[in-house]
Amino acid sequence: MRHDKEMNYNCKKCDAKISAHNKDWHDNLCDKCFNGEYYSDETEIFSTDLKEIEKMYKSDSSSNIEFKDFLKSGKLDNKRFLKIVREVEEKIDCTECGNCCKVLKIPVNEEDIKRISNSLKISSEEFITKYVEENSKGKKFLHKPCNFLENNKCTIYEVRPEECKKYPNLDKDITIRTIGFLSNAEMCPIVFNVLENSKDEFCEDIYEDKMERGEKQDKNG
User: Fold this and answer.
1) DSSP state of 27
2) Could you check whether the bond before residue 168 is cis, i.e. omega within 30 degrees of 0?
3) Res 1: pLDDT
4) Residue pair 210/69 in contact by the 8 Å Cβ criterion
5) Average pLDDT of each block of 10 consecutive residues along the chain (221 residues)?
């Protein structure tokens, strides 16, 4: 319990009494104001501009690497992560971007081909000839930007490939697909903003994991 003499300062935001610890280490804020200022529950949209996203992502490579190492540790709280995903997805309209349809060649399976070709009223063979390429890894759309993208909107949206429905795959376990998650962050506004909010949300966990790994290296050194 604090003694009154320790509470000789005031929060610069709400004027509540604060301790010397809060003054020196919490930016002269009480606990409530400090948490609201630096650990807000509200997700933030850092940017949706693709050029700015690419620049920000590359300039912050060290923290991205730290987050990747944290993901590999298996300590990610998936419930907290999915909350960030939902809130970011609610704030960003994919039709204002469409970058994934411009830079990726989406994999397609036989069911996708049959469904889309039926919708276009052409045979599967004709669809494959016009729109699909195949290699040892399977089939995927031949062109980029995608032939079915117009004004950032999918013209075959109701019958689009399964991979398109799943992208950017944030409902999957990202701890086993860290490279894919981080590479998508450089080109998808949703993934980028999920990454940036996650680095803020899990900052203490990331730091603790980094310290633990450092201690283990010292012991094994």
Assistant:
1) T
2) yes
3) 38
4) yes
5) 58 85 78 63 89 96 95 94 95 92 96 98 98 94 96 94 95 92 96 97 94 77 59
Structure tokens at 35: 């948490």
Residues whose CB is less than 8 angstroms from the CB of residue 8 and which lie 6 or more positions away in sequence, other chains included: 20
Q: Within its chain, how far is the Cα of 34 from the centroid?
A: 25
Between CA 50 and CA 147 the distance in angstroms is: 21
Q: 162: helix, coil or strand? A: helix
The DSSP element (H or E) to which 209 belongs, if any, is helix 203-220
DSSP codes joined into one string, 45-113? -----HHHHHHHHHHTHHHHHHHHHHHHTT---HHHHHHHHHHHHHH--GGGT-HHHHH---B--HHHH
- The residues, ordered by sequence, that sit 6+ positions from 114 with a Cβ below 8 Å of its Cβ are 124
Tokens 């494959």 belong to residue: 128
Looking only at the bridges linking them, the beta strands covering 153-154 and 17-18 are unpaired
Residue 112 tokens, joined: 């996708």
Matching residue, tokens 């003694």: 3
Query: Could you report how far apart the first and last alpha carbons of the chain are, in Å?
Result: 43
Comparing CA positions, the residue from 160, 198, 197 lying closest to residue 70 is 198
> Maximum Cα–Cα distance for the chain, whole Å?
83
Domain borders along the chain are 4-38, 50-93+169-220, 105-166
